[in-house]
Amino acid sequence: MRNSLYKKNIISINDLRRNELELVLNKSAMLKKKPQPHLLKNKIIASCFFEASTRTRLSFETAIYRLGASIVGFSDGNNISLEKKGETLADTISVISSYVDAIIMRHPQEGSARLAAEFSNKTPIFNAGDGANQHPTQTLLDLFTIKETQNRLTHLNIAIVGDLKYGRTVHSLTQALAKFKNNKFYFISPDALKMPNYINNMLDKKEIYWKRYINIEEIISEIDILYMTRIQKERLDSTEYANAKSKFVLHTETLKNARSNLKILHPLPRIDEIDRDVDYTPYAWYFKQAANGIYARQAILSLVLIEKHL
Amino acid sequence: MEINKLQVEAIKSGSVIDHIPAHIGFKLLSLFRFTETEKRITIGLNLPSKKLGKKDIIKIENTFLSDDQINQLAIYAPHATVNYINEYNLVGKVFPTLPEKIDKILICPNSNCVSNNNLITSSFIFKKDQFSNMNLKCKYCEKEFSKNIVLSYQ
């Protein structure tokens, strides 16, 4: 099978074409059904976390071990000599790229993964989050979970709730789902945290349906996917936050008119935007979604590092 | 053109950037790093202009601007003309058109963008929104800004 992802940098979900997304999702499904522990035997992968992100790091590292590769790296930028000595990110990446077969990088500055790719001497870079910009493997696992639960990535009604302004996962997810036909988007957020114009403009340009709603109850009976995100207290003043908190918290009673196929997703960590009782409903899928991160990351790592797949 | 020859010394060979909006000439000098050259540069500010009322003009001796440089002028001086001079004669006239991308000159308004924090140069691509407004998208942080926001940030 021709693999156009071979040796590609995975920086932004926007860089991946629809057929490449499908390739990753198919590979994820294959790996979930039939693990292939020796796919990356003899490969060494650097896990460079310039800021702490335990969940993403452990997910990537688990994926690496499951593929039989080895890891070098660091998990917190504050404790590495590179930053203390004042070395530039470009130099750091240039050096590490000569040691390993791929670099997974988390960095607080937006665009850092794109910069790293310019200095990595063709060693592939995997963006594990660059500030508020992109987190492409989160989007891949979101897509994988949506496809797994709905059997398709087209003709879906998707409600996205919470911090739509700063939440990079919802921007990337919307951009990715916009590559597939006949999806409809329902955006639910406080005024101060609504979806940025560049996302709305992109949807308009592609003539994709989207609409803002005030609360989840209004559209619960129409949707297939309810993607919840955390409203960050520090983004709103105290009155706005108090209003938002009551309006955008998901309770079991909100779900009484839900479609039977509805799945609730969340990039996690969840604070209190999903009531704990919802965990026991058949709609709650966020922990299974997080578990799918392993397969999605295994898939993208193996596709980038191996040219031919059976 | 005759008037300008009287007000700003003619050059024997090089480029003349004419019809720069008044008050922009000085900005162009620094943004395009024209001041970093050893070549002789003459500049006229607030000259009378039929087209603009007032205009600035920059003359750079023995330097011929590249197509890229000329097109990048379009963001600040959309009505500028670049005249190529040889032996005091006009041998070419170029009108800038907005390029697809613009490197080095602008600063990303996103303070957390890596291009503001490392020894690298900025890079933007031009994008039109559905209302035909001109936006600039940062290659690094992928944020899209209206042209005016980026220009006012410089």
TrEMBL record, chain A:
GO terms for cellular component: cytosol. L-aspartate binds at K85, R168, R230. It catalyses: carbamoyl phosphate + L-aspartate = N-carbamoyl-L-aspartate + phosphate + H(+). Pathway: Pyrimidine metabolism; UMP biosynthesis via de novo pathway; (S)-dihydroorotate from bicarbonate: step 2/3. Heterododecamer (2C3:3R2) of six catalytic PyrB chains organized as two trimers (C3), and six regulatory PyrI chains organized as three dimers (R2). Catalyzes the condensation of carbamoyl phosphate and aspartate to form carbamoyl aspartate and inorganic phosphate, the committed step in the de novo pyrimidine nucleotide biosynthesis pathway. This is Aspartate carbamoyltransferase. The lineage of its organism: Bacteria, Pseudomonadati, Pseudomonadota, Gammaproteobacteria, Enterobacterales.
TrEMBL record, chain B:
InterPro entries: Asp_carbamoyltransf_reg_N (IPR020545), Asp_carbamoylTrfase_reg (IPR002801), Asp_carbamoyltrfase_reg_C (IPR020542), Asp_carbatrfase_reg_C_sf (IPR036792), Asp_carbatrfase_reg_N_sf (IPR036793). NCBIfam families: ATCase_reg. Residues 101-150 form the Aspartate carbamoyltransferase regulatory subunit C-terminal domain. Binds 1 zinc ion per subunit. Its cofactor is Zn(2+). The gene is pyrI. It comes from Buchnera aphidicola (Acyrthosiphon lactucae). It holds the Pfam family PyrI_C. The keyword Zinc applies. Involved in allosteric regulation of aspartate carbamoyltransferase. It comes from the Bacteria. GO terms for biological process: 'de novo' pyrimidine nucleobase biosynthetic process; pyrimidine nucleotide biosynthetic process. Residues 6-94 form the Aspartate carbamoyltransferase regulatory subunit N-terminal domain. This is Aspartate carbamoyltransferase regulatory chain. GO terms for cellular component: aspartate carbamoyltransferase complex.
